[in-house]
Design brief:
By secondary structure, the chain is mostly helical. It contains 6 helices and 3 strands, in the order αβββααααα. A hairpin with a 4-residue loop joins strand 2 and strand 3. The protein is elongated, with a radius of gyration of 20 Å. The chain starts with a helix and ends with a helix.
C-alpha cells in the first residue's frame, strides 16, 4: 500500500523517498518495529524553549502547580520595578510554546497550562511564577 502510494505520488510530483521520518515539527519519532512501538518526544524542542526563556538551569520540581495556588486578574503588580520587569516578558510566546508541547506530546501539563493561559495577555508576577514552575517541571 505504501509502495503504491509512493509510486503514484512520484508520477505526479517531483519527489524523493527519504525513508521513515525521524524528526518532524520539533517532534522526534522513535520506532521499535519488533515490539510495534512508536515513541514521540519533544525533548529537543522543550530544551530549546527552556533556553529561550532562560529556564534551562532552573530547579527541578515534581509537581506542576503549587498547593493552594490561586490566580486571578486582581493580583496586581506592586512596584514600578516589577511592572517594568513584567513588560519585558513575552507572555503570549511563553504560553504558546507551552501549548504546543502540551498538544503534541505532553498532555500531563494541560491543567497547569490552562490555568496560566487565561492571563497570557496580562501576565502578572504570580502568573509568571506559575509559568516558571511549569518550566521547572518540564526539566525533569
Amino acid at each position: 500500500m505504501i509502495q503504491t502510494t509512493t509510486e503514484w505520488l512520484s508520477s505526479i510530483l517531483e519527489m524523493n523517498d527519504m525513508g521513515e521520518a525521524w524528526y518532524v515539527l520539533g517532534i522526534e519519532i522513535s520506532r521499535n518495529h519488533s515490539k510495534k512501538l512508536l515513541v514521540l518526544s519533544q525533548e529537543a524542542y522543550i530544551n530549546k524553549v527552556l533556553e529561550r526563556f532562560r529556564m534551562h538551569y532552573s530547579k527541578l520540581v515534581d509537581t506542576l502547580v503549587e498547593k493552594d495556588l490561586t490566580l486571578s486578574l486582581e493580583q496586581c503588580l506592586k512596584t514600578d520595578k516589577e511592572k517594568e520587569r513584567m513588560n519585558n516578558v513575552p507572555s503570549a510566546s511563553v504560553v504558546g510554546s507551552l501549548m504546543y508541547a502540551m498538544l503534541c506530546t505532553r498532555p500531563d501539563i494541560c491543567f497547569a497550562v490552562d490555568l496560566v493561559s487565561h492571563y497570557q495577555s496580562n501576565l502578572r508576577s504570580a502568573h509568571w511564577q506559575a509559568v516558571k514552575r511549569i518550566f521547572c517541571y518540564l526539566r525533569c
